[in-house]
Protein backbone atom coordinates (compact mmCIF):
# COMPACT_ATOMS: atom_id res chain seq x y z
CA UNK A 1 0.00 0.00 0.00
CA UNK A 2 1.35 3.41 -0.94
CA UNK A 3 0.29 6.59 0.87
CA UNK A 4 1.16 10.27 0.85
CA UNK A 5 0.87 12.42 3.95
CA UNK A 6 0.13 16.12 3.54
CA UNK A 7 -0.92 19.30 5.30
CA UNK A 8 -3.76 21.29 3.79
CA UNK A 9 -5.31 24.66 4.61
CA UNK A 10 -8.86 25.96 4.98
CA UNK A 11 -10.64 29.05 6.31
CA UNK A 12 -11.36 28.95 10.05
CA UNK A 13 -14.61 30.92 9.67
CA UNK A 14 -17.80 28.85 9.94
CA UNK A 15 -19.52 30.96 7.30
CA UNK A 16 -16.75 30.68 4.69
CA UNK A 17 -16.18 27.59 2.55
CA UNK A 18 -12.69 28.46 1.26
CA UNK A 19 -10.27 25.53 0.95
CA UNK A 20 -6.73 26.02 -0.37
CA UNK A 21 -6.49 23.95 -3.54
CA UNK A 22 -2.82 22.93 -3.23
CA UNK A 23 -1.10 21.03 -0.43
CA UNK A 24 0.96 23.18 1.93
CA UNK A 25 3.48 20.49 2.99
CA UNK A 26 4.16 16.85 2.11
CA UNK A 27 5.45 14.83 5.09
CA UNK A 28 7.04 11.43 5.70
CA UNK A 29 4.21 10.01 7.82
CA UNK A 30 0.89 10.94 9.38
CA UNK A 31 2.43 11.84 12.75
CA UNK A 32 4.73 14.36 11.07
CA UNK A 33 1.93 15.91 9.01
CA UNK A 34 -0.25 16.15 12.13
CA UNK A 35 2.58 17.79 14.09
CA UNK A 36 3.25 20.31 11.33
CA UNK A 37 -0.46 21.17 11.07
CA UNK A 38 -0.61 21.62 14.85
CA UNK A 39 2.49 23.84 14.83
CA UNK A 40 1.06 26.01 12.03
CA UNK A 41 -2.28 26.32 13.88
CA UNK A 42 -0.49 27.48 17.05
CA UNK A 43 1.62 30.12 15.26
CA UNK A 44 1.07 33.72 16.38
CA UNK A 45 0.64 35.10 12.88
CA UNK A 46 -1.36 33.21 10.27
CA UNK A 47 -2.24 34.16 6.73
CA UNK A 48 -5.73 35.46 6.15
CA UNK A 49 -8.36 33.88 3.93
CA UNK A 50 -8.47 35.47 0.45
CA UNK A 51 -12.26 35.07 0.39
CA UNK A 52 -13.31 36.59 3.74
CA UNK A 53 -10.20 37.75 5.63
CA UNK A 54 -10.43 35.35 8.61
CA UNK A 55 -7.43 33.27 9.71
CA UNK A 56 -6.40 30.16 7.78
CA UNK A 57 -6.29 26.84 9.68
CA UNK A 58 -4.40 23.67 8.79
CA UNK A 59 -5.12 19.93 8.97
CA UNK A 60 -3.27 16.67 8.28
CA UNK A 61 -4.44 14.73 5.22
CA UNK A 62 -3.57 11.27 3.89
CA UNK A 63 -3.93 10.10 0.30
CA UNK A 64 -3.99 6.31 -0.10
CA UNK A 65 -2.88 5.38 -3.60
CA UNK A 66 -3.60 1.66 -3.36
CA UNK A 67 -6.41 0.90 -0.94
CA UNK A 68 -6.35 -2.39 0.92
CA UNK A 69 -8.54 -4.97 -0.72
CA UNK A 70 -9.78 -8.19 0.98
From TrEMBL:
Top-level taxon in the UniProt lineage: Bacteria
Protein name listed in UniProt: CxxH/CxxC protein
Amino acid sequence: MSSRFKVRAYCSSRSCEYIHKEDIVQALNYETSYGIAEMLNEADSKPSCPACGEEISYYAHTVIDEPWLP
